[in-house]
Each structure stands twice: as structure tokens, then as C-alpha cells.
Design a protein that fits this description.
single chain; 728 residues; mainly alpha; Arp2/3 complex 21 kDa subunit ARPC3; Hypothetical protein af1432; 3 domains; 4-stranded mixed sheet; two-stranded antiparallel ribbon; 10 strands
């Protein structure tokens, strides 16, 4: 970054001086933008509160409320009821642990096998004693030896079948009412096989009622009452609960149901009654009112504070960009223009979104006046400043429109495309052509955006159509509106400079008539300055026009300047102080004349700065000879300035100096011109005349080479034609 430019920017009145009107204006801009955002986004919430907003449950509706827009909302109460019902209808899941079932049956089978076929009483007792550690209390069954072996085997088989039936069905230790399901049903899953069955709660087998199951089973067989009691005793001994509630599986099932659960939507179309007269306000009506408030938007502290916050961020972002890219600091030269265009773009955008936004319709972003604003700013200022403006504006609308990415992309790319398309426009009619190209850019942008965000073919077609028409209308409107801005702001637009470059304007004709030497001098300077500016990327047209008008202050006192003198020099009869005053006055007179002619500020600046604060050497040296160097003030014999502030003004200064100095050269050659011009440029450089224009040494070298190229053509050698008498 150029250090001098950065210092100049930081010393700008908008940045440095808190007491200036510019700082106050900047603060005023901030609050105007914030108020605009608040009014256009919170207007309904602040100023249009409906009477039915205050209804409470149980109130009587006093008048019908008709919807002007469709209203869709979720009935929270109905959704909660639906969800509760769905949760209540989910069957609690119990898992039968098959490993417990298998262990119980194996334990019984081992017992059965151990006592089968033993008839010896002593051996039977020993076996029972050995089984005591495995089957505690089994020793009390010694009376079994008295039973018939076949009958005992039959009773043990009945006991096993009972145990197997109970264990396969599932034996519940207890059944909690909260886990029994609203329908009185349970879902039972076998852990090994994964089989699912559904049971009635009253049919479940509990540790407290398993006897009923055994008795029902035994009723089908010919067992005596004593045998049945024995079988129940054996079954009780071996039974073990194997069916348990699974909270994990039950919760997982609830989560699956919740995933598929859809809310209860209520749809009301335009013209439907939101509230009906003489009806009682219920929870449903309150839900409708709340949904209507949500659609309109509720006023909140966040909604009020947000515009203050992100507008401040935008201003900070702007100043950071201006510091990072000092070439764009020209935005601060006319803050009124930047503010107005930003405010206009923001206001129109918010109004469009307020009145044209329709769900499922053409996106409102394609109606935004981004192209129009970018064209106008690009023509009134320059491309670099327009790019910064577009970048800032795109971020602003992104925030204001609740982080609308479509608005961000359209503002950014439409604005950049517009300023690039009209950059080379030289005639006003070129704006119409530019509008067509902008339409093509916006059509392509709309097509890409609609591909990213799928929409019906009809909406895609109308979106492309609107984007194209927007571009064409922007071209026509810019052609219509630009003269108004030119009249108010008097900027250096290409079209205005083209008009001023006409040498048939009255002031230029008057110069030709009254100061022909100055006219010729100005034309030569224009050729030099235009070539130099073009080669360093500066505004060549502004340099040419500035050269034409830089010496208009000499017209009414032409005889006091050497280029208009023939034989007699008026300064020979004047004091040096008076001569210097006359020479210096042509700048002041030129500025006054330019202001009366309403010339653009850029041209007036060149008139004011084309001598900078350089010394009028001829009269200064003459004064030194007459009075001595100690008695002569250098400031009295220097121009009043200011020094050149732009590259165009600096090049015109160097061209003015080069054109005048090279007139005295005898047989100029390329080498002579290069050395002579570089020495002249370095004099201005060392005197500090070029410190504030932002030019680099490399650019000065390019300017010097451009001057040499033009002057070489001007001073080219010509052949000497023979006299007719000699030929005869």
C-alpha cells in the first residue's frame, strides 16, 4: 500500500476530525439507514396492531376476521394429543430370556435322570444327600421311593411339561401398571429366536398366579389330587422368572414412531375467516391468532437491536476496505451520492420483498434494482469504487433480509457484471447496448440460481424473463436518470468529458481567437497528457479535457504570456513582483471561469493543480539578481497550489512543463529528449510536487517514454525542398 495515500486517507475529515460536519453527516447516514430498515421491516408490528390480538380464551369474537394472505401453521395442541396417543398405543416390550428357560429345564432334566430307576432305599437316600448342594431341600423328598416308578415318571413328565409351557410363555416376576400398555396388551420377544408375540395383560403368567396355568394343564390328564399337588410342588421348586421389561427396546420403538410422526397442520386460504363473529375464543382460535402474529412478525428487542448492530458492522467493513484498498478512498469525496444510491437500493429492495414476496412464486431478488444502481455509480465514479460499493451492498441486503443468500449472490454478481459491461461506454446510446448485455448476464445468473434451488419449469421461465427485463430496463433508466445526476453532481462522466472535448465549444474558440499561442500549447499538452495517462492506466479522456481547459485563465490577458507574444514583452516594463502576480493569477481566474461554466470538479482540480507549488523560475532568478537571494522569499515567487492530488493532474503538470521546455531545444533527438525530460521530471519529484498524487517511479518512467514518443513525432526531421528558381 502506498504510504502517502494511506496517510492521506487517515487524515480525511470523515476519519480524523470529530468536530466536522462530515462526521456528523456520516452519523446521520447511519441512523437514516437503520430507521429505514426498522420502518420497512417492523412497520406492521409497530403501527398496525389489530384489535383481536388481545383476545383471551373464553372471550366472544366481536367481528369476523378475514385473511388477506394464506395462513399455514401447526396446531400444537392437536399435535401434542396425537403424539401422546401414539406414545400410549406403543406396546411395552418384554423379553423372554431363553437362557434362563434352558437352564431351568436342564436343571429339572438332571434331577429327573438322577432319581430315575433307583429302587434300593439306601442308595436312593445317598443320591438325595449328594444332590443337596445342587438342589437344596431335596432330601425331604425321600418318600418318593415309596411311589410306583412308572407313576413317578409320569408325574415328573407332567411337571416338566408344565415348566416348559410356563417358561416358553414367559414367567413375569411382577407386572407394573405403568408398563402394561394403555390397550392391555404386551409385546413379548424371545431373546434367542427373536419371535414376537402379543399377550393380553390378564393372560400373563406371574410368579403369583402360575398355579392356575399348571392346574389348567393337569386338568386334561388323569392325576389324583395328591399327584397334582406333588407336581405343583415340583414345578414351584424349579420355576424361575424369565420375562423382564425392556426399557431400551420400548424407548427405541418410541423414537422410531417419533421420527415418522408428522405435526397437525392447519391450512387457511386467502378469504377464509380467521375468526368468526359471536364465537367463543378457544385454544384453537388462540393458536390461529398466534400463527397470524408469527406470519406478521412479532416485535422484539432482538429485531430492534439487530439493524443497529449489523449496520455498524457494515460501516466498519467499509472503512476497513477503504484502508486496505486506498485507491477506493475516492468514495469519500462524494458521500452523498454513495449514501443515496445505497439507501435507494435498500429501500426499493425492502419494498419489493414486502409487497411482491409470494411463496412458490418468482424470487423477488430478480426485481432488485442492483444493475441500475451499479451502472449509475460506475459512470459517475469508476469501476474500482463501484466494486467496493457492490460488495458492501450485497452484505447489507444479506443481513437485512434475514441472511437471504439469493439476495447476496444476485446483488454481488449482477452489480459486478453491470459495472464491467458499461465500463467502456463512450456514447450515451451505449447504455442501451449495455442493458442488453446486462440482461444476458442476469439471465445466466437466474438460470444458475434456479438450478441450485429447484423450482417448477413455469417459475424458472418467469424468473429468467424477469431477470432479462430487469437488465434491459436498467439500461433505459440509466440513460434517463444519468443527465439528472450529471446536472446535480457535475461529475466527470465519460459522456460529459466527450462533450467538453469538442474544440468547437465557445471557450475554446475564444481561446483560439484571443490567445492562439495558448491554444496551440493546450493542444500539444493534451496529446502528451492523454498518451501518458493511457499508458499508466489513468483517465486519458480527463487528462485531455483538463489540458484543453487548464490555461483558460490566460485568455483575457493573453499578451502577458510568452506563447502569445510576438515582438514586445510587456513584462520588460513591469516589476518582477507585479509580473509574478499576473502569472499566478491565471490559475485563479481559470478556476473562477471554470466554475462559471459549471465544468466538472475533476477538470477544475486540474486547472488548480497544474502548476502545484512550483517556483516561477524566470522571475525568481531575475529578482535574486536585483535584490539578492537573502532579500527574496521563495514563496512569493511560487504558485499557490495545491500540489497535484491525482495522476491525471500530475501528468498534465509534467506535460505542461515538457511542452514549454522542449520548445527551446535545438535539433532534438530521442536521446536528448529522454535525458532532458527525465531531468525535468526529477526536478518536480525532488521538489515534492508529486508526493500527493500516488504516482510511482515506474509510472514516471512510462510517462517520460510516452512524452518522448509524442515529441519525437512532433519534432521529426523534414527534408529541405529546393527553391523553384534554382530548379529552373
Amino acid at each position: 500500500m502506498n504510504k502517502n495515500i494511506r496517510i492521506n486517507f487517515l487524515e480525511h475529515t470523515l476519519v480524523k476530525d470529530n468536530s466536522t460536519m462530515n462526521r456528523k453527516i456520516l452519523i446521520m447516514y447511519y441512523f437514516i439507514i437503520v430507521l429505514t430498515i426498522l420502518i420497512l421491516t417492523q412497520f406492521d408490528k409497530i403501527f398496525l396492531r389489530e384489535s383481536f390480538y388481545n383476545y383471551k380464551e373464553g372471550d366472544i369474537v366481536t367481528e369476523d376476521v378475514i385473511l388477506e394472505k394464506p395462513l399455514t401453521f401447526i396446531n400444537q395442541e392437536a399435535t401434542e394429543k396425537k403424539m401422546k396417543l401414539a406414545m400410549d398405543l406403543i406396546l411395552p416390550i418384554y423379553v423372554v430370556k431363553d437362557d434362563i428357560s434352558n437352564r431351568v429345564l436342564k436343571s429339572f432334566d438332571d434331577f429327573h435322570m438322577s432319581i430315575s430307576g433307583i429302587e434300593n432305599e439306601e442308595e436312593f437316600s445317598k443320591i438325595l444327600e449328594s444332590m443337596e448342594s445342587t438342589y437344596p431341600g431335596i432330601q425331604y423328598l425321600q418318600h418318593l421311593r415309596t411311589l410306583d416308578t412308572a407313576r413317578l415318571s409320569l408325574m415328573l413328565s407332567g411337571a416338566r411339561d408344565s415348566i416348559e409351557t410356563i417358561m416358553q410363555t414367559g414367567l413375569f416376576s411382577h407386572l407394573n401398571e405403568s408398563r402394561s400398555g394403555a390397550t392391555g396388551l404386551l409385546e413379548v420377544i424371545h431373546s434367542d429366536l427373536g419371535e414376537k408375540t402379543t399377550q393380553m395383560v390378564e393372560n400373563t403368567i406371574l410368579i403369583d398366579n402360575w398355579q392356575d396355568t399348571v392346574r389348567d394343564y393337569l386338568s386334561y390328564y388323569d392325576y389324583s389330587q395328591g399327584e397334582a399337588k406333588f407336581i405343583e410342588m415340583i414345578v414351584y421348586y424349579f420355576l424361575e422368572p424369565n420375562c423382564f421389561f425392556s426399557s431400551e427396546l420400548t424407548d427405541l420403538k418410541k423414537q422410531e414412531v417419533l421420527k415418522t410422526m408428522t405435526p397437525v397442520w392447519i391450512y387457511l386460504d386467502t378469504g377464509d375467516k380467521l375468526l368468526i363473529k359471536d364465537t367463543v375464543i378457544t385454544s384453537l382460535e388462540l393458536a390461529k391468532i398466534n400463527a397470524f402474529l408469527d406470519m406478521k412478525g412479532r416485535i422484539s428487542i432482538n429485531a430492534i437491536a439487530a439493524p443497529f448492530f449489523y449496520t455498524l458492522l457494515i460501516f466498519i467493513f467499509l472503512f476497513v476496505l477503504l484502508i486496505a484498498f486506498p485507491g477506493t478512498a475516492g468514495l469519500l469525496e462524494n458521500p452523498n451520492l454513495i449514501f443515496f444510491l445505497s439507501w435507494f437500493h435498500l429501500t426499493v429492495t425492502l419494498l419489493l420483498f414486502r409487497f411482491l414476496s409470494v411463496p412458490g412464486g418468482v424470487p423477488v431478488v430478480f426485481f432488485m434494482p442492483t444493475a441500475l444502481v451499479s451502472i449509475i455509480l460506475s459512470l459517475l465514479r469508476n469501476r474500482r469504487e463501484t466494486i467496493i460499493f457492490v460488495l458492501i451492498q450485497s452484505v447489507l441486503v444479506f443481513f437485512v433480509l434475514n441472511f437471504n443468500s439469493q439476495a447476496l449472490y444476485f446483488t454481488l454478481f449482477s452489480g459486478l457484471g453491470s459495472c464491467l459491461v458499461v465500463e467502456g461506454a463512450e456514447k450515451r446510446i451505449d447504455l442501451i447496448k449495455g442493458g442488453v448485455f446486462i440482461a444476458l448476464v442476469q439471465i445466466l445468473l437466474a438460470l444458475l440460481m434456479m438450478i441450485i434451488i429447484p423450482a417448477p419449469l413455469k417459475i424458472v421461465f418467469f424468473s429468467i424473463l424477469v431477470a432479462g427485463i430487469n437488465g434491459i430496463i436498467s439500461g433505459f433508466l440509466s440513460l434517463t436518470v444519468l443527465p439528472l445526476f450529471e446536472h446535480i453532481l457535475n461529475p466527470c462522466t465519460t459522456f460529459r468529458l466527450q462533450e467538453l472535448s469538442d474544440l468547437n465549444t465557445p471557450i475554446i474558440k475564444r481561446m483560439l481567437a484571443l490567445a492562439p499561442g495558448t491554444y496551440s500549447h493546450s493542444i500539444n499538452i493534451a496529446n502528451l497528457a492523454e498518451t501518458g495517462c493511457r499508458n499508466i492506466g489513468a483517465n486519458a479522456l480527463l487528462a485531455r479535457v483538463g489540458s484543453y481547459y487548464h490555461d483558460i485563465g490566460k485568455i483575457d490577458q493573453a499578451k502577458y504570456f510568452s506563447e502569445n507574444q510576438k515582438e514586445y514583452n510587456k513584462h520588460d516594463d513591469m516589476k518582477t513582483t507585479l509580473s509574478v502576480a499576473v502569472i499566478k493569477s491565471h490559475v485563479k481566474i481559470g478556476i473562477e471561469t471554470a466554475k462559471k461554466m459549471n465544468l466538472p470538479k475533476g477538470v477544475i482540480d486540474i486547472i488548480a493543480q497544474h502548476h502545484g507549488t512550483s517556483v516561477i523560475e524566470y522571475f525568481y532568478q531575475q529578482a535574486v539578481k536585483e535584490k539578492g537571494v537573502e532579500n527574496v522569499s521563495l514563496e512569493d515567487y511560487s504558485h499557490n497550489g495545491p500540489r497535484p492530488q491525482t495522476k491525471e493532474a500530475a501528468v498534465v503538470m509534467l506535460a505542461d512543463m515538457a511542452e514549454a521546455a522542449t520548445r527551446s531545444m535545438v535539433k532534438p533527438t530521442v536521446n536528448k529528449l529522454e535525458k532532458f525530460l527525465w531531468d525535468l521530471i526529477m526536478v518536480r519529484f525532488k521538489d515534492g510536487e508529486l508526493n500527493e498524487c500516488g504516482m510511482t517511479l515506474q509510472e514516471l518512467e512510462v510517462v517520460k517514454s510516452s512524452f518522448v514518443h509524442v515529441l519525437t513525432g512532433h519534432y521529426h526531421n523534414r527534408i529541405e525542398y529546393p527553391d523553384r528558381a534554382e530548379r529552373n
